[in-house]
Each structure stands twice: as C-alpha cells, then as structure tokens.
Amino acid sequence: MTDAEERNSEGISSYGRRKKVVRKETRLGLSHGKDEDFGKWYSEVLVNSEMIGYYDISGCYIIRHWAVVIWDIMKEFFDKEIEEMEVEKCMFPLFVTSAVLQKEKTHVAGFEPEVAWVTKAGKSDLDVDLAIRPTSETVIYPYFSKWIRNHHDLPMKVNQWCNVVRWEFSNPMPFIRSREFYWQEGHTAFATKEEADAEVSEILELYRQIYEEFLAVPVIKGKKSELEKFAGALYTCSIEAFIPNTGRGIQGATSHCLGQNFSAKEFFDITFQNEKRRRTVFGRIPGPTIGVMVMVHGDDKGLVLPPKVASQQVIVIPVPYRDANTQEIFDACAATVKTLRKAGIRANVDKRDYHTPGWKYSYWEMKGVPLRIEIGPKDLTNNQVRAVRRDNGAKMDLSMVSLVEQVKELLDKIQESLFDSAKQRRDACIQVARTWDEFVEALGQKKLILAPWCDEEEVEKDVKERTKGDTGAAKTLCTPFDQPEMHEGTKCFASGKLAKKWSYWGRSY
Fold it and tell me: How far is CA 335 from the centre of its chain?
C-alpha cells in the first residue's frame, strides 16, 4: 500500500465513509449549499468558520478573531500607504449634537432615517440630544475651520478607523448591512480642486489594491451618478464588486470630492486669510469588504481565504496511524511550523489528539485555510510532506529540503488563481444591453449590465421605477473610467436619446 493509500485509509475514512456521522456529532459541514440558498449559506459560513457571533441586538454582530485579523492586515497596508501621503492619524468623538448635525442639511438628509440618538443619561433627559455618528463630516469639519488659519496649514489630511452607527431597517446581513460597523474614513482639505481630484484618484487606487491584490476580488473603478453620489459631495468615485450567485453589485469603497460644500461659511466656514473657501475630499473603506470576499470565494465546504489576508496561511496536521511513532510525527509537525514561521509564513499545527485527521481536514476547510500540510510516518521516511490546496483541492508531495520556497510559490499561485477565477466568473456575468428589452432580459438573468446612457437623472429614476419588484429595483452602479468606444449616434437604452456614456447597471445590496 502506498503512503497516499495508507493516509486515505486512516484519515479520509472518517471524512468519507463516516462523513455523515462525523458531521452529526461535530456539526461540521454546511446544511445549505451556496447555489441552493445563498442567504442561509452565507450566514452559516460566517458562524461556522468563527468569523462572527450573533449578538442579542438585531443588526449588531460580534466580529471574531478570524475576521479581525483580515481587517488588521488591510489596515496595516493602508496605514503604511497613507503615511507616505503625509496623512495624520486621529480619533474623533462618537457623538455629535443635533445643532451641528443639522448644519449641512443636504448631507444629513441621506442619513436622517438611520441616525441613532442618545436622549437620556441614567433617568435624566439630556439638555441637548446627541446623535451617534452615522459618518463623520459634521464631527470633523468644524475643527478644520479652527485649525486652518493660513495657506501654510494646507493641505490638512487626517484619517481614522472607527465604528459608526446607522439604524438600518432593512433585513440585516453581517458585514453587508448592519447597524454598527467598523470602517476607515479619511478627511482632507486642499487649496485647489486639482489637488483634491488627485487625492480622490490616489485613494481610490489604494482601495482597488486592497480588493484585487489582497482579497483577490475583481472590481470596477468608476464614478457614481448624481443620484447615487454621496450626499453633499461634488462627485463620488467608487470601486464596484459583483456577486455572481445573487446577481447583485456591491459598493466596495468610495472616494469623494466634496468641493466647497462643507467649507462654505454657512456650514463649517473652512477658510484662511486672503482666500475664499477650501476644497475638501475624503475616502472610506466600509464594513462590507470582508463580506464581499466571503461571498465571492466561499464554497459548499465553507470559507476560502486568499493567502495574503488569511490569519493562518498553512495548517499542519499530523497523520499518525497503526504502529507509527506518534511523538516523532508531532515533533516533525512542530519543526515544520517553526521553519515556515521563520520564513514569515503564518502557520500553525493542529495538535488535538481527540479528533481524527479527517475531522481536522473538514474543520480547517470550513475555516478556509489556503494550504494544508499533512505529515505521516512515510512522509518522514521520504523526507517530504503532503500539501493540499483549499481553493481547488489539488494534492502534491513537497520535499522538506526546499519546503519554504515551494510553500511560498504555492501560496502565490493560490492568490493568483482565486483572483483569476473570480474575474472569469464576474466577466461571464457582464451583459451589454443596447435596448430596453435587452436590459430587462439581462436583469432577469442576474447580469451585470453595461449599457449606453443619456446621463439624465429623470431617466435613471424612471429605470428604478420600471424595474421595481420583490428583489429590488435596478440602478446605476457606476460609470467606469475605462469607457468602451461610443459610436456616433448610439442611443440610450432607456430613453432613446443620444447616449453620453457607458454605465454599469444592476440590482445591488
């Protein structure tokens, strides 16, 4: 019997022949398939993989270590990049008075239904009602007006990572639609619009890198329509992701140019001597980030984590059987982990002796660890390990002599493969629609629709109205910066007027 056959006879038997028993006893495995019931699958994956815990307040969730590490890795990258841009760290208070919140009425109107208020301290009514920030423009910009006195104070750039609260009344969904969520928000002030425009673009590119190079999620960079832009902004740029299983787009991150809207005297009076109003700009990466990654890569076994953001990139599992020297195998596993860690690879060993190897395979597949290494007695004899990829299940034997180099190469391949596969699935869902009938047909097929548009707000509102249904209305997602050629005489798919641009449309979260 070969080493692989012996491994299968001992380890995989509990995962294969006794699969149903193991799942019943340990609650491993998912009761809903990704294509069967996406919503239940998504919730089950997050809980079973220990990314979240449900809290006793609807729409609020406990974010557990497995997810927090992903945030930390993204945060470390982003903080390092914006430090090079001379952005300063800050932490502003959670509360804002009603008087200040109402100063920028156009901005507040977009959040007003979701603002949570504090009206009591103990049993006593507060003299002034306090809002819990739904976003921080009205918290931060009054202090920009105090700090900016002359041109030497510009540009002013601050960034904070914080929790915000929006009392979402729609069906809550962890990471995607929650009442409290963690995000990054940067706020800056410049003397000229040209500087602000450049900052919008630079920050948006950092967001693209987070999604595509870390989370392996393909995104589209573009500009929001006037109807969909951030309330109070001059314009909003975004990166848009797409979930093929649900046929819905999702706003991955945004970067806004606020123009002079928040610096005007009637609002927060951000000026300096001998000059008029200042341009402001900010960007933010929101809570849905992790949820998008789970939706795009996850499968019927659970999470599939890209190596760059995985808390554990490699899990080492001892496979002792028959009369093998168990201690020798465990020592080899520990030595392997030590070698990998020394090379900067996040690795650990599952030393639990009260679970079979097969159970451990299922457990770590559920948690999405990119690479599994198995070590049995014949592996020791042959000075090798068995490696198994989480993304495609491919198995291979790796020599211990060049283990670090081979593992690094495998992790790079997994990262690249996840992005390529996700992009292929996303691109297969893109449908060009030049007429209303083509648009409706593509929408019914859950496509990401690219259509020529006249760029008129009333037409956009009409599209929303005409596509209302139980699953929500269609809307513009963004106008991509990378515009297809617009032939002379091209008509808008919805109005029949001359088209001015190509825009992505679809249903969204």
Answer: 35
> Residues 468, 422: contact at Cβ < 8 Å?
no
Residue 12 contacts residue 4 (beta carbons within 8 Å): no
Q: What is the pLDDT of residues 449-505, one digit of tens each?
A: 999 999 999 999 999 999 998 888 999 999 999 999 999 999 999 999 999 999 999
Which residues, in sequence order, are bridge partners of residue 66? Answer: none
Beta strands in 166-265 (DSSP E): 180-190, 220-223, 235-243, 248-259
Instruction: Tokens for 40, please give them.
Output: 């239940």
Q: Are 317 and 330 in contact (CB under 8 A)?
A: no
- Peptide bond preceding 113: is omega within 30 degrees of 0, i.e. cis? no
State the CB neighbour count (10 A cutoff) for residue 97. Answer: 15
Residue 122 main-chain phi, psi, to 5 deg: 65, -125
Contact 228, 475 (CB under 8 A): yes
Q: Are the CB atoms for 439 and 505 separated by under 8 Å? A: yes
Question: Tokens in use for 506?
Answer: 């679809």
**Dihedral sign, Cα of residue 257, residue 263, residue 264, residue 268:** positive
Are the beta carbons of 289 and 63 closer than 8 angstroms?
A: no
Residues 150, 156: Cα–Cα separation, whole Å: 11
Q: What is the pLDDT of residues 181-220, one digit of tens each?
A: 899 999 998 988 899 999 999 999 999 999 999 999 999 9
Both tokens of 39, joined, read 């919503």
Q: Side by side, which strands form the sheet with 116-121?
A: 95-97, 124-132, 116-121
DSSP state string for 40-69: HHHHHHHHHTTSEEE-SSTT-EEE-HHHHH
What is the 3-state composition of the chain as percent helix, strand, coil, each rounded to the nearest 5? 40, 25, 35
Cα-based distances in Å from 212 to 74, 85, 120, 183, 416 = 12, 21, 45, 18, 10
Query: What is the sign of the dihedral through the CA atoms of 223, 224, 230 and 232?
Result: positive
* Length of the chain counted residue by residue: 509
* Cβ atoms 303, 51 nearer than 8 A: yes
Asked if CATH classification 1.25.10.10 holds for the domain at 3-27+301-424, the reply, yes or no, is no
pTM > 0.85: yes or no: yes
* Contact indicator for 388, 394 with CB cutoff of 8 Å: yes
Cβ neighbours, 10 Å, residue 192: 12
Are 270 and 277 within 8 A, CB to CB? yes
Question: If we measure between CA atoms, which residue out of 471, 466, 468, 473 comes closest to residue 495?
Answer: 466
Q: What's the rounded Cα separation, in Å, for the pair 97 and 113?
A: 16
Q: Please give the Cα distance from 505 to 509 (Å, whole number).
A: 13
CATH architecture, domain 52-297: 2-Layer Sandwich (3.30)
Cα distances (Å, whole numbers) of residue 275 to 141, 250, 264, 327? 18, 40, 12, 75
Q: What is the CATH number of domain 430-508?
A: 3.30.110.30
Boundaries of every domain in the chain: 3-27+301-424, 52-297, 430-508
